[in-house]
UniProtKB/TrEMBL annotation:
InterPro entries, alphabetized: ABC_BtuC-like, ABC_transptr_permease_BtuC
GO molecular function: transmembrane transporter activity
Compartment(s) where it occurs, according to its Swiss-Prot or TrEMBL record: Cell membrane
Similarity comment: Belongs to the binding-protein-dependent transport system permease family. FecCD subfamily.
Keyword Signal tagged: no
Annotated keywords: Cell membrane, Membrane, Transmembrane, Transmembrane helix, Transport
Protein's recorded name: Putative siderophore transport system permease protein YfhA
GO biological process: siderophore-iron import into cell
Pfam families assigned to the protein according to its UniProt record, in alphabetical order: FecCD
Transmembrane segments: 22-43, 77-98, 107-125, 131-149, 161-180, 204-225
Gene that encodes the chain: yfhA
Membrane topology listed for this record: Multi-pass membrane protein
Length: 262
């Protein structure tokens, strides 16, 4: 009983340390975010000092300052925060799932599949607006399922998924280059703008759309993320503990969100 109590106490100390470190990191990131918000909302062709920004945010300021902050700069900053957080979450899930720090949506070809679908929809079918983002999401999800099917024949090894994803990524890049070279210059330019992405002239409805997607999928991501520590023990140990590897991996990879780049 003494040894068991000592082990439990050690585990409890480790957990408290992890929680404390998580709180410190969250507090530091919050401070960095506030500083970045002050700079982002104050810099530009119409510079504003931090006091002007704060006064405008609480309802003061002139009409010009209110318009610049709330209608021009704040949507860009909000989109950067929401989209950046979603992409960071996607990368963390993939790295935890495949147990490889190099795993990312672009390396696995998921971003490439979304780009191919978007370019085809834009150049071939003339799709634009919010529907183009839906088409891009479908392309990324299709590549994710293709990777799982390709790697499922021999145990769904993380290394096989990564190798298959690298091949799919290069294939998608070739398809995009071919479509761009065969299209008109105006269409190719529009496709390049969409692929490169931009936060310029971001309206609030786009921020609300991306935020809604993140909010809807976040509970499912958090629920599924409970199995990641078990998966870190290896596929054999995870299977022995009752984790359904195919189901978990399908849930993780298919939860990659393809955000509208343009």
């Amino acid at each position: 009983m003494t040894a068991l109590a000592a082990s439990l106490a050690a585990v409890d100390r480790v957990r408290r340390g992890l929680r404390r470190r998580a709180l410190l990191v969250a507090a530091a990131m919050t401070i960095v975010l506030l500083v970045a918000a002050t700079l982002a909302l104050g810099l530009g062709d119409y510079p504003m000092d931090p006091w002007q920004v704060l006064r405008t945010l609480v309802g003061g300021g002139t009409r010009i300052e209110s318009y610049i902050v709330w209608e021009t700069r704040m949507p860009r900053f909000a989109m950067a925060v929401v989209a950046g957080g979603a992409l960071a979450l996607a990368g963390a899930l993939l790295q935890g799932l495949l147990r490889n720090p190099l795993a990312s949506p672009d390396l696995l070809g998921i971003s490439g599949g979304a780009s191919v679908a978007a370019v085809v929809g834009l150049l071939v079918f003339g799709i634009g607006g919010p529907l183009l983002a839906v088409v891009a999401f479908g392309g990324g999800a299709a590549v994710a399922v293709l990777l799982l099917v390709a790697a499922a024949r021999r145990g769904q090894s993380g290394f096989r998924i990564i190798l298959a994803g690298i091949g799919v990524s290069f294939l998608c890049a070739c398809v995009i280059d071919y479509l761009l070279t065969r299209s008109k210059i105006e269409q190719a330019q529009a496709a390049y703008v969409w692929l490169a992405g931009s936060l310029n002239a971001t309206p609030w409805w786009q921020v609300a759309t991306v935020a809604a997607v993140v909010v809807v999928t976040l509970p499912a991501v958090l629920l599924a993320a409970r199995d990641l520590p078990v998966l870190a023990l290896g596929p054999d140990a995870a299977s022995g503990l009752g984790v359904r590897l195919g189901f978990v991996r399908l849930g993780r990879v298919d939860q990659e969100v393809s955000l509208p780049a343009g």
